[in-house]
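Sorry, explain these tokens?

***
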Amino acid sequence: MGPSCVPWSGSEGSASLRSHLPLCNLSFEVVQKLVLPFGRLNYLPLEQQFMPCLERILAREAGVAPLATVNILMSLCQLRCLPFRALHFVFSPGFISHISGTPHALIVRRYLSLLDTAVELELPGYRGPRLPRRQQVPIFPQPLITDRARCKYSHKDIVAEGLRQLLGEEKYRQDLTVPPGYCTDFLLCVSSSGAVLPVRTQDPFLPYPPRSRSRGQAASQPTTRDPAQRVVLMLRERWHFCRDGRVLLGSRALRERHLGLMGYQLLPLPFEELESQRGLPQLKSYLRQKLQALGLRWGPEGG
């Protein structure tokens, strides 16, 4: 069975890629450096030989360079284009045993944990080996490096204050890491009638793997009528996008896609909208409209 591929449409980069082909003639380390930017920029090249050639390289070199192998697979994971044959190899007991004693063991296990999550959520046809539970580690247990580096430019503090005044401190959680290890910006618990509930009254996250969710259900489909629904407010800051400000970086798109597939309802807060709010009162009005558009409601203490 071949890879599952959903390309981002566009023509940029195709000419430069052709100048590097055939990839098969390049060293594995050079191939890794060429492939990583595609995942980061959330761009699947239109060159027809890109994936077949890359699969051949992975089949030939995967056992020689474990870290480069998982780096390439991470990029393909961001592009929703994972070759089954390579997954069989990196989830094999031999590969896992080989990387256990290396200096990069923890980062490789983190990448393998993310790949296992992608298999669980996105590849229902996969029937090969999986990462043993004892080898799994949290994927992204804290905010990403770019968010920590640019925290003074972030809208997170003012959004947190807006939610505090609008809902009350007990009705949202900030920077909560949910299984299998994704850090959320803000998380709300919602009853079957759409009421925003105090987070402390129940488990703040949904079970993983999802127990009762159809794999074919769209990630963006509203599900606030389900008894244990959770709503995740996702800040989309300027640095979460490629330079054009339209396409999310691969890591951001991956996180949103997986949270949606796990059953969380996502409420994106784009930087253009956040930057247009003039002061806290206007931001509170903006958040109120966003939440009410989802059918959420809260008591008079919400303001």
